[in-house]
Design a protein that fits this description.
Chain lengths: 119, 183
């Protein structure tokens, strides 16, 4: 009888890739929020609705969201290509991904990103 | 009794997609939690894997739809600017059509925007990323996920965080809508 430890399953690389990509997307969202607070130029650039016609009346949130989505999708593709067919230390990837997600949560929390407001 | 177009979209965003998200989370969480070899037989795995797949996939798809509808359809109505000449410092009936400005005009309501909406509009974006990662893991492993305890535990954490980010957004969305509905 096969025990759970002896059962062969598919390599975990592709799953580690999407977990890390989710962490990267989350962190980039937080980063965009902070950058928009720090710099008026970046805040204006992030108005993708006005600058690139991606929506109407959304303001800088359109750019923050699209940048985070692009970071998630692009990093997912790159990591997937790098890790497909490989067995990796999932715990290490999970810890890094969770640290990035924690960064995303932290940097989207108003009392935190308001610290970066230029006086 | 009728709903305006704006109210209907707000309802779809908050109550419709939000309710489906909650249901999918409940089903997916229960499935993931109990997916251990000492708790289920081979027949049990085969029986519950499709349900787990549907629960996590629906949660991911709904999370994406909720964020997209919320950001690109509902949010512009919330942040629409009042015309020149309308006093932005007084919570008048006319200003009520511009929820963001109505909230900011009141000392007791300004925090709903400055804290509540500012947090909600950003943190919500984390939910689809996290939920997608979980759904992809279920699609990839299927029933063999039961033999990957390391991945399954990570999925439980991500699934809970996806729910937390959506929960924060949903809670503040409901409270802000109560304070300053989009009309």
């Amino acid at each position: 009888m096969q025990t759970p430890e002896t059962v062969q399953t598919k390599p975990n690389g592709p799953v580690a890739a999407v977990f890390l990509a989710a962490g990267i997307g989350s962190f980039v969202m937080g980063l965009m929020v902070v950058l928009a607070v720090i710099s008026a130029d970046i805040n204006n650039f992030l108005k993708f609705d006005a600058n690139f016609g991606l929506g109407s009346g959304v303001g800088p949130l359109s750019g923050k969201g699209i940048m985070a989505i692009l970071a998630f999708l692009l990093s997912w593709v790159v990591l997937h290509l790098a890790l497909r067919g490989k067995e990796v230390k999932f715990g290490t990837f999970l810890v890094i991904a969770l640290a990035l997600v924690a960064g995303g949560f932290l940097l989207t929390f108003p009392p935190v990103f308001e610290i970066f407001h230029a006086e | 009794m009728e709903l305006t177009g704006k109210e209907l979209w707000t309802l779809i965003h908050g109550m419709g997609l939000g309710a489906v998200f909650l249901l999918a989370f409940g089903g997916g969480m229960a499935g993931l939690w109990s997916l251990r070899s000492r708790l289920v037989t081979e027949e049990g795995i085969a029986e519950r894997t499709p349900r787990l797949l549907i629960g996590t996939a629906v949660m991911a798809v709904v999370a994406w739809f909720t964020v997209i509808v919320g950001t690109w359809i509902v949010y512009p109505w919330y942040r629409a600017a009042p015309p020149e000449g309308l006093d932005r410092a007084v919570q008048s009936d006319a200003l009520k059509e511009f929820p963001r400005y109505w909230l900011l005009a009141g000392e007791r309501t300004a925090e709903w925007h400055q804290f509540g909406m500012e947090w909600k509009e950003h943190v919500a974006f984390l939910a689809p990323f996290l939920a997608t990662a979980v759904a992809v893991a279920v699609i990839y492993y299927g029933g063999t996920l039961i033999h990957r305890g390391d991945v399954r535990r990570g999925m439980l954490v991500f699934f809970t965080l996806a729910f937390a980010s959506a929960g924060i957004a949903g809670l503040f969305g409901a409270l802000i809508t109560k304070a300053a509905p989009i009309i």
